[in-house]
Amino acid sequence: xxxxxxxxxxxxxxxxxxxxxxxxxxxxxxxxxxxxxxxxxxxxxxxxxxxxxxxxxxxxxxxxxxxxxxxxxxxxxxxxxxxxxxxxxxxxxxxxxxxxxxxxxxxxxxxxxxxxxxxxxxxxxxxxxxxxxxxxxxxxxxxxxxxxxxxxxxxxxxxxxxxxxxxxxxxxxxxxxxxxxxxxxxxxxxxxxxxxxxxxxxxxxxxxxxxxxxxxxxxxxxxxxxxxxxxxxxxxxxxxxxxxxxxxxxxxxxxxxxxxxxxxxxxxxxxxxxxxxxxxxxxxxxxxxxxxxxxxxxxxxxxxxxxxxxxxxxxxxxxxxxxxxxxxxxxxxxxxxxxxxxxxxxxxxxxxxxxxxxxxxxxxxxxxxxxxxxxxxxxxxxxxxxxxxxxxxxxxxxxxxxxxxxxxxxxxxxxxxxxxxxxxxxxxxxxxxxxxxxxxxxxxxxxxxxxxxxxxxxx
Length: 459
What we know:
With 459 residues, the chain is an alpha+beta fold. It folds into 3 domains: 156 residues, no CATH class; 139 residues, Nuclear Transport Factor 2, Chain: A, CATH 3.10.450.540; 130 residues. Helices cover 34% and strands 24% of the residues. The strands form 3 sheets. A 5-stranded mixed beta sheet has the order 1-2-3-4-5. Helix 1 runs parallel beside helix 4, helix 11 packs across helix 13 and helix 13 crosses helix 14. The radius of gyration is 27 Å and the shape is elongated. The N terminus is likely disordered.
């Protein structure tokens, strides 16, 4: 059988070329002499992005010791996913995941901004999390996660660039909320930019002008429709929840202020709306707009099955476009180990010849007895090989465990991470889960080649 090597971590996502990682490294190569006090970090990062890189909007959040930045993009990938797939001309799926030059430039600019703040602040930051999301076309996003100490170590040549690249977590994923929120963002954009006739045609084609013009300030006190709205709208918060397969409810909190700043017609105020979004057909469309203030206690006026109080109570669990994870070292190492082992098994001939569709997974459990666990889905290519075993463990599965254990001990030692008692190897056989355990002391003997892995495993 001919051995065909895989493409490495996150199969099908090999578009993250070495160039992108060099870009990421370059972004953290400098350190500003200016100190950004903890209370100024968020504003400073937004100011740098706006004033120096002309990026009008980024969201910045701190959760625990993680700095998270959300970069919304009008376009992330060079090819339109739907059009490219429907054309039938795509032969290489990885080509779909090639970021545009403009997207790469913006990601680089934001990374530079993050580096300046992270390396010059008195705020404790252990991890960085950058989410670049295509909010206009595909809803796909590119996410980088890394540790600040790795940035410092590579800058001082304590670790090589090749190792640093392995320490950065990256993934592509779909952001459903970004797609659901798109028509709502467009609605408030059009309130700011379009004339009354256009707004009416786009959003209220079957509604009398007097019913919507006054609500959205396209009418004067006497009810006369104005050529253009008298207000400016700023979106403060968007959240969404699916209510049926093709129906979404989006909550929008907005600030509305008078367009005339010299002689404002009214003071700024905060408004809340519910948008009923349909995802049927070509794209997401607004079906109804409900001012939340009009939603009575029973929800009957809007024909909804929930009340205003229910909305407020459940909002924290509604989907958002950006949510910063509270990253911990154990979780970070687990994800990094999973990615590293994916790369290893994709290039290993023995694993390829024995197993198919190998899916390794490390997990970290923080408890009174903190531990790591390793689980792998690895169906045999040939069922006749099932009888080959070594102490109750298939000999090639044991070989795979040894690869995992070697990666595990090397990575944890390089991070000086000691907050664990054991590494558990989990296997499902004949409908039963079996667990073998290697203690931290036994793994250290394995690392120093004093013992083989099988000799330190207990069942």
